């Protein structure tokens, strides 16, 4: 009997060539993702990149235009209640229960699940014990967001979707929230898919980052891998003899500087060697997408 190869990772989310168009506007242009059990995965991209659209497709709230999707072994378009119960959702648009009191709302949501968390423990976990008796519409923005997270994890999800979870948080609330996500992933083995447009947040929290820009994943890897890739090409800047500023990207900056010296009559004016940071690379990608360079190149590649 032939044995099936054991997969290196237990894949919780898998997408292949997913596209999405709203009318004649292409928002996703072929998205491939593999998210492994227990990892914190950040989908990073600027406003309008298609992060929420991607997450809604994975959650089964939106029909994709084309492509294959598996989430916890099922196609989200055909996920049943049992499948849905294994997901935790923290959406961007907030659920409207303004007159409920915090503890009542949590206790109510807990009844939807077979093995819910204890609401009092959950309030402590998200730092809302002091607000247990408060009406939801009296909470601050950051407190509401923490309540959203509590509602997202009350059913002990295997896979938690956090769509721009820290928007509107002050630095302390953000820090507390990061600790909470780490705890869920490290101690409870929850797989987390987080969307953000904040590179620092993605670097801080994620095991792996996918940069979604212009409807495609433009880079994917651990924060360290992405930073290394970004820095692989150094940028050498100098001022030419006629006074024009020059810049060149190269994997071998010392050779370029040596050549400049060899060819120069004297010292090289304005000489500078920089290693781009991950942020430089991200901003560069966003700019290329905004001015259409990426799209033109994608179309050329397809035509070829
Ligand atoms: N229901 C819809 N109908 C038409 N266009 C839509 C719809 N929803 C989103 N879009 C458009 O699709 C693009 C991607 O939107 P999406 O909300 O997925 O981006 P995002 O990366 O989550 O952005 P943000 O960071 O601003 O939340 C945007 O240009 C948006 O205007």
TrEMBL record:
<dbReference type="InterPro" id="IPR017871">
    <property type="entry name" value="ABC_transporter-like_CS"/>
</dbReference>
<keyword id="KW-0067">ATP-binding</keyword>
<dbReference type="GO" id="GO:0005524">
    <property type="term" value="F:ATP binding"/>
</dbReference>
<protein>
    <submittedName>
        <fullName>ABC transporter ATP-binding protein</fullName>
    </submittedName>
</protein>
<dbReference type="InterPro" id="IPR003593">
    <property type="entry name" value="AAA+_ATPase"/>
</dbReference>
<keyword id="KW-0046">Antibiotic resistance</keyword>
<keyword id="KW-0813">Transport</keyword>
<dbReference type="InterPro" id="IPR003439">
    <property type="entry name" value="ABC_transporter-like_ATP-bd"/>
</dbReference>
<keyword id="KW-0547">Nucleotide-binding</keyword>
<dbReference type="Pfam" id="PF00005">
    <property type="entry name" value="ABC_tran"/>
</dbReference>
<dbReference type="InterPro" id="IPR027417">
    <property type="entry name" value="P-loop_NTPase"/>
</dbReference>
<dbReference type="InterPro" id="IPR050763">
    <property type="entry name" value="ABC_transporter_ATP-binding"/>
</dbReference>
<feature type="domain" description="ABC transporter">
    <location>
        <begin position="13"/>
        <end position="239"/>
    </location>
</feature>
